[in-house]
Amino acid sequence: MDLLVPYYEHPSARPAEWDAIVAAAPLLYGVVVNPASGAGTAPDPAFVSVADRLRAAGVCVLGYTDTDYGRRPHADVLTDLVRHRDWYGADGAFLDQVPTDPGAVPHYRRLGVAARAAGAATLVLNHGAQPDPSYAELADLLVTFEGSWDTYRELDLPVADHFCHLVYAAPASARLATRVKCAVPGGGAHPWGTLPYPLECP
């Protein structure tokens, strides 16, 4: 199983949950580290520690960076990428809020080059919906669905090895179509504050 885990809770507030994530290392494709809707303005010691533990367990650490559907300035995105690398040892990048239209491909091609130059061996683009096929050459993984289980189960989505589905408000019995995936029980405004199936907090 390849779980991509976007767990947006502070390690000092949820230490047992982070312990469970680290312990599940063999199941993980990667973990998105998101100290402050990005890298923040200064290193967070608790996230430094958990990122160190993840890397020691052989887990890819993906630094969360918001791109605001192409509206966020290139320099600001690059600053986040470099801070994730320098402060948290991120060896991958998770670019959030990526558009689906082909017109934005040149912008994201440039961001992809910057991410690779900043040390991102793994690059994930989160479109949240099916993007234009031209994005496939830019990244290792495309998140082609992010939404609720009720919506997901009504759709017949394309599947490919480089696609990932992120589903919230899902039952334990939920089965996702992609190889890389994440289904969590949480819903509402902050679904990614719950552990994914099949992780269980002791």
Overview of the structural elements:
The protein has five helices and eight strands; from the N terminus they run E-H-E-H-E-H-E-H-E-E-H-E-E. The mean pLDDT is 96. It starts with a strand and ends in a 19-residue tail after the last strand. Helix 2 (45-56) links the parallel strand 2 and strand 3 (61-66). It is globular and about 40 Å long. Helices cover 26% and strands 22% of the residues. The chain has an eight-stranded parallel beta barrel with strand order 1-2-3-4-5-6-7-8. With 202 residues, the chain is α/β, with parallel strands linked by helices. This is Spherulation-specific family 4 protein.
Approximate strand percentage? 15-25%
**Strands ordered across the widest β-sheet:** 1-2-3-4-5-6-7-8
Helical residues, percent: 25-40%
Structural class: alpha/beta
InterPro entries: Spherulin4
Protein name: Spherulation-specific family 4 protein
Organism: Streptomyces lavendulocolor
Pfam families: Spherulin4
